[in-house]
Amino acid sequence: MYSMLGELIGETTGKIAGQRIVELEGPTIETNVSSTGTLSGVPVTELLTYIAGPTSKGVIHGIGKGVINTQDGDIEHLRVKVSVDLIPMEF
After folding, report:
1. Which structural domain, as residue segments, surrounds residue 62?
2. Alpha carbon of 49 to those of 21, 42, 70: distances in Å?
3. What per-residue confidence (pLDDT) applies to 88?
4. Would you call 61 helix, strand, or coil by DSSP?
5. pLDDT of residue 82
6. Is residue 64 part of a domain?
7. Cα–Cα distance between 78 and 36 in angstroms, integer?
């Protein structure tokens, strides 16, 4: 299977399963995520852990590792980079 650059090949939704402070300076936070969804049309479950911290005002960057499992028992390993721009919300 081939896909075009920028083409959506999968999507998962889930919840943060846990968080802990790794380093107070920064701070650096470890986050564990559990999600389900599809990858190339195949149902998957994803488990992911990443460590992230602020790099500049309003920006968080991190790296992590995880696994994706299919219903047939196939397992793939992930390496991820996380980048989040924090946008103030008005209530």
Report:
1. 15-81
2. 13, 22, 18
3. 77
4. strand
5. 85
6. yes
7. 15
**Which residues of the chain carry a pLDDT beneath 70?**
1-3
Mean pLDDT of the chain: 90
| Domain assignment present for 19 | yes
CA distances from 26 to 23, 29, 53, 91 (A): 7, 9, 6, 27
In a domain, 36, yes or no: yes
DSSP symbol at 20: E
Contacts of residues 47-56 at CB distance under 8 Å and 24 or more positions apart, as own/partner, are 48/78, 48/80, 50/80, 50/82, 51/22, 52/28, 52/82, 52/84, 53/23, 53/26, 53/27, 53/28, 53/29, 54/26
Tokens representing 36 are: 């389900």
What pTM value is reported for the model?
A: 0.76
35, β-bridge pairs: 14, 46
What is the pLDDT at residue 2? 64
